[in-house]
Amino acid sequence: MTKLSVSHLSKTFKDFKAVDDISFEAHGGEIFGLLGPNGAGKTTTIRVIATVLQATEGTAEVAGFDIRENPENVRKHLGLLTSDIGLYDRFTARENLRYFGRLYGMPDELLEKRIHELVELLDMQGFADRRAGKFSTGMKQKVAIARSVIHDPDVVIFDEPTSGLDVLASQTVIRFMKRMRDQGKLVILSTHDMAHAQSLCDRVAIIHRSELIAEDTVQVLLQKYKVVTLEEAFIKIVGEDEAKSLAQEEESKQFGKTSSKKKPVRMSKEKIVKILRFVSIGIVCIGLIMSFTKVGGDKAQSLSQGIVVAGAIGVVISRFLQKKKI
Fold it and tell me: Is residue 217 within 8 Å of residue 203, measured between CB atoms?
């Protein structure tokens, strides 16, 4: 049964087309991979399908409900896990799940049964009643996954669900995804890790520079391009020159991030001189006010004169530095 149908979907931000005329179908009882390098358009596609963003053109149906005409029903039948975990630190794991379950309007008895089931399935017994603020990344990710499926949706979209997890936590998540597939649900896995997708997905759609460039079962794609891995198939599809260009773009992004972190924030010399001048003038004004008030006797008057002189020296120095253009 078709659980997700995407038809000529496009999303434009001003002059940039993030998603360009994408169409595909995915069915219950499979893990469908939405693959592509970072910036390809995967996350935007997911957000449009999940009704977080509005499509510029085209549409999609989730469990038979159109994202334009029935967004509320779409949200009832869809679970979404993004990189933004979004848990309430002061709530326990159970309280987080209870809160989101009530937002979906679940009856208390059904909700408590579902929470118990998910705590067991995701091995959360050891921390289910502890506050989320002190959880490790793996613990938080498990609670976030449970939260995204608390309402037992027909379609679940996982965006890099094992990112930052250790091997044991990753295996727990993978087993859970397979269990959902075996229950007849559609699991969408969005990832740039093609090796991970190859071992887990039944079918895949590859997005590159906002466009869908390939869609089929993993085995068919490997046979079609006579390769052993999806990564090799991707390189053959886009061409070696394009693949190298992508690698260079990613390196440039990473280098830019590193450089920006290392670069200290420095105040310009002109700004320093200007601040010195204003502060000095302020000191002169304070000294003059003290001298006119004539409070505190001779000692106070001597102090006010000293303040005026210090401020005047500061003004002279700032003017000198300004003329020198240091």
Answer: yes
Mean pLDDT of the chain: 85
pLDDT higher than threshold 60 for residue 259: no
| Domain residue extents for the chain | 2-240, 269-324
CB atoms within 10 A of CB 319: 14
Token readout for 281 is 């003038």
| Whether the Cβ atoms of residue 34 and residue 214 lie closer than 8 Å to each other | no
2-240: CATH architecture: 3-Layer(aba) Sandwich (3.40)
pLDDT score of 160? 84
Strands 78-81 and 155-159, bridge-based pairing? parallel
Q: Are 319 and 277 in contact (CB under 8 A)?
A: yes
**Can you state the percent helix, strand and coil of the chain, rounding each to 5?**
50, 20, 25
Reply yes or no on whether the pLDDT at 325 is more than 60. no
pTM: 0.72
Distance of CA 9 to the CA centre of its chain: 22
- Tens of pLDDT, residue by residue over 188-214, are 999 888 888 999 999 999 999 999 999
DSSP state of 228: S
HSE-CB of 310 using CA atoms within 13 angstroms: 11
* Residues 178, 175: Cα–Cα separation, whole Å: 5
